[in-house]
Amino acid sequence: MRDFIREHRHEDVRQLALQAARYPDIDMQQALQQIAGWQTARTKLPEWAATEGIVYPPRLSMEQCSSEATAKYKAKVLGDGCWMLVDSSHTNNNKPPTPNTHHPTPSTIIDLTGGFGVDFSYMARGFQKAVYVERQPHLCEAARHNFQLLGLENAEVVCGDGVEYLKNLPSPFNAQSPLTIYLDPARRDENGKKTYAISDCTPDVVALKDLLLEKAGRVMIKLSPMLDWHKAVDDLGEVVEVHIVSVDNECKELLLVLAKNPAAPLRVVCANIRHDAETELFEFFPSNDNLSIPLFPALRERDFLYEPNASIMKAGCFAEVAHRFGVQPTGSNSHLFLSPQFIPDFPGRKFQIEQVTSMNKKELKHAIGGLTKANITVRNFPLSVAELRKRLKLADGGDTYIFATTLGEKDHVLLITKQIF
């Protein structure tokens, strides 16, 4: 079986399935599951894919598991022990803060919703003891096998219900050995349909919150990025950190860190993990709500245009961004920013404006004459991307970026730009 999987793992699983009769001695269903899992892991979990002998679960578990990048991010947050405690006056916020060495790193972590075990495998390395709890026997069996291959000597696998395991923990777990609990509630109902409200997830972490904080000094909960993080904080209370995590500018996870009777104000961290392995970080305190958006600037060609990354967009912290980086918004609801200076550490995409045009036909002809294709983004504009592309008669692609937006309160303009990397 292993030889067959290794020999055919670069092939199309659908074509292999049609050839099952040629391999009567092979459990083709299991082989195809392993081949498909490895093919997903090549991009999603490259370190796992490079480990010979890893056992992969069915497709749904592979789809639902965290990526290697986001799992490492969670391990960094938990392993450093409140590493977010830094001076809020810092202006260069795209670099990871210095860990707070005065906070003891917890020695035990319990993952109550183990699943395929990707998050657990990375978080466990930062703790003296790590317990994986999962109620599905086939996932537990795979976890025991995989954790051994990954060298997790401190890992304990418990096959059982996470909520029951939580109830049976002593209270508090151990004052001399602080405990962290991690949960990734299932976001599908009994019919397999996706759910987004916290109370619709399994287990219901709102109902469990008091019990969780009775047992552990710190709790991290992974939620859908579709959720309104403000409401999630209100629903749960006692949230000390919110992490909005994107990978290559696509919002992937909402992480909430809870602690009983928090003394520090809520901190929100917008993280965009880029393909070059660097992470853009932008942190702010929602309690600092006295900031106002600067006045709209006079738009000039050759100015620089800035588009915040997906995590900042999700957070909605536009006033903080404007003040931190000294940029001005193009309009009240456009969420694009301008500056005459180039800001290399701005957390998002950066462009230089080459031309500005209204929707006047004569101006448009002069501005886009000779263009056959462009990347079009619409922000606070009366036309959709498809409608604008049809009107401009431009194909998609190329190295020209057109931003259709509203300048100030009412002037509809097209900003024709080139991206700066």
Report what the structure shows:
Helix content is 30%, strand content 24%. The protein has helices at residues 2-8, 13-18, 28-44, 46-49, 59-64, 68-79, 118-123, 137-149, 162-167, 205-215, 229-236, 310-315, 318-325, 361-368, 385-392, and strands spanning 108-111, 129-134, 155-159, 179-183, 218-223, 239-247, 250-258, 267-273, 279-284, 304-308, 328-329, 337-339, 348-357, 375-379, 400-407, 411-420. Strands 3-2-1-4-5-7-6-8-9 form a 9-stranded mixed sheet, with helices on both faces. A 7-stranded mixed sheet has the order 11-12-10-13-16-15-14. It is globular, with a radius of gyration of 25 Å. The two termini are 46 Å apart.
Largest beta sheet, briefly? 9 strands, mixed
N-to-C span:
46 Å
Whole-angstrom Rg: 25 Å
Strand content: 15-25%
Low-confidence stretches: 81-104
Average predicted local confidence, pLDDT: 89
Shape: globular
| Helix percent band | 25-40%
The assigned structural class equals alpha/beta
